[in-house]
Amino acid sequence: MTKRLLFAFVALTMLAGACSGDDADTTTQPADSGATDDEMADDEMGDDMATGPASVRADDQTGDGTTVTVASVTLPADGFVVIHADNDGAPGPVIGHSALLGAGDNTDVVVTLDTPLDADTTVFPMAHIDANANGDYEFAPPDVTTDVPATTADGAVAVTAIGYTIG
């Protein structure tokens, strides 16, 4: 139970502080939980589920506010690209997610947003792992043990910030 609470706290902390600025490459925020990524992954998802290494790359874009295109995402296991709204320079609520993506390199991933954007903003594409392997995107903080954020080689959440212009 203590590890589960610690994992939830670390995941929420990483999610809240994962990114700021307008860099189009994967942003890294190291987690300092006292437990290794492998220990957290083993405890929550079993020994065979890896959360990293993963990466996300997307460029600033102009569109009608209904879709976001992610140039590339690399996943260690099947998963999703999830688009988060801006929350004062950090990933906020989920506003859309891709269909299930296979492990490995995925390019030109188009994510349809649940609610179209109506103004210029920053959005945060983030890689998630299909931790329970059911093919459905399931992530609802504070229960962050299902379809967890994927991590980079250094243990940070695989996320990037991009500018989105309505046009």
Question: Any overview of this molecule?
Answer:
With 167 residues, this protein is an alpha+beta fold. The protein has helices at 2-16, 37-45, and strands spanning 55-57, 61-63, 67-75, 79-86, 91-97, 104-112, 121-129, 162-166. It has one domain (2-166). It has a five-stranded mixed β-sheet with strand order 2-8-7-4-5, with no helix packed on it. A three-stranded antiparallel β-sheet has the order 1-3-6, with no helix packed on it. A hairpin with a 4-residue loop joins strand 4 and strand 5 (91-97). It is globular.
Ordered list of secondary-structure elements with their pairings:
Layout: H1 2-16, H2 37-45, E1 55-57, E2 61-63, E3 67-75, E4 79-86, E5 91-97, E6 104-112, E7 121-129, E8 162-166
Parallel strand pairs: 2-8
Antiparallel strand pairs: 1-3, 3-6, 4-5, 4-7, 7-8
Structural class by helix and strand composition: alpha+beta
Order of helix and strand elements from N to C terminus: HHEEEEEEEE
Number of domains: 1
**Main β-sheet description:** 5 strands, mixed
Given as residue ranges, the uncertain stretches (5+ residues, pLDDT < 50) are: 1-48
What is the mean pLDDT? 78
User: What's the total helix number?
Assistant: 2
Instruction: Please tell me what the overall shape is.
Output: globular
Physical arrangement of strands within the biggest beta sheet: 2-8-7-4-5
Content of β-strand: 25-35%
The tally of strands reads: 8
**What's the end-to-end separation, in Å?**
48 Å
Radius of gyration, CA atoms, in whole angstroms: 15 Å
- The helical percent reads 10-25%
